[in-house]
Amino acid sequence: MSRSNWKRIVIKVGSALISPNKKGCSSHYLLSIAQFIVKCRAAGTQVVLVSSGSVAAGSQLFPEQEKTDIAVKKAMAAAGQTEMMSTWDRLFDFPSAQILLTHGDLRDRERYVSIRETIFCLLDNGVLPIVNENDTVTTDKLKVGDNDNLSAMVAAAADADALIICSDIDGLYNKNPHEHDDAKLLSWVEHIDESIYAMAGGAVKGGVGTGGMRTKIEAAEKAVSHGIDTFIINGFTELSFNMLLEGKNPGTHFQAHETPMQENIHWMRHTSNAQGEVIVESNFAASLESDTDQLTSSEIIEVKGEFSVGDTILVRKDDGTKLVKAKSNYSSCLLNFIAKQDNEDFATEFEQKTGPIISNQNIANLEKE
Questions:
Q1: Nearby residues of 173 by Cβ (< 8 Å), 6 or more positions away
Q2: What average pLDDT is seen over the chain?
């Protein structure tokens, strides 16, 4: 790795670092992180900070409340967000900006582009963007759910060179280091597959965060496919950040793909949610290898869900195999109408006049899923 090549990085800090005792924010573990950010900026590297911690920071203000109640958690997030931002702000002698997002913001293409423009403008003017999920207003339908995956989406939106995810251990081990003394740290991961996910296990029980090692692997997979080198490091030790500054790897380095996905295709595959499904005959899978063949209504078995023109849809086979996510040029209502026509000539003529159902430049292949 060569830190000197980094023009822009995203660093993700979890709740356990922000509020280790679940009694409001603490700067104990944040000082070394802040110093790392300051040194990166001084060296000309732009930084975006994705910070959890609003719920953990606000929990002390609701001692008598049931912490699992959704309304209470939203209230804790609202109260704790102010303290979290104030804590970070005290550690810097340059301005910072708060960006609160939901998955609804990221999966809408127009809002996603707006987020990119805002981040770029802040960075170009020397302002540190501090991003968090907007837990106060988000719902199950609109939330990302964990800031590991959010940090990868933000890194992609920001066109970052590196994503640094802080953990409570040194990186990814071949087995759980808390349970196995012979667990070995993987310093380098070239390809993320099921064997890597198997090492990750599930979420950590009893912690203050919402993710575990698995969500960090998910985030790494999103990031590396966009050409972003990703590191999982121990955020509780200053040594990790000193090593990064020296160009050394203190944890697990996930290698970026040499040929990144195009920005709009990466957004469609890893950020945008499918608003509906189109079930097709299996022969459509073969047409994916061609630049000229298109999905036609004659290949459609069923249309599920409601979607509008421009929405992302999932195209899959009847056996459940996912083929592509794509931008739909037809609404579900219109697509249902033409797919149910007995007169194939009518459907063919209609599609010739109005254009393809999905366009090749707006397709994200899901063959690996």
A1: 183, 184, 185, 186, 199
A2: 88
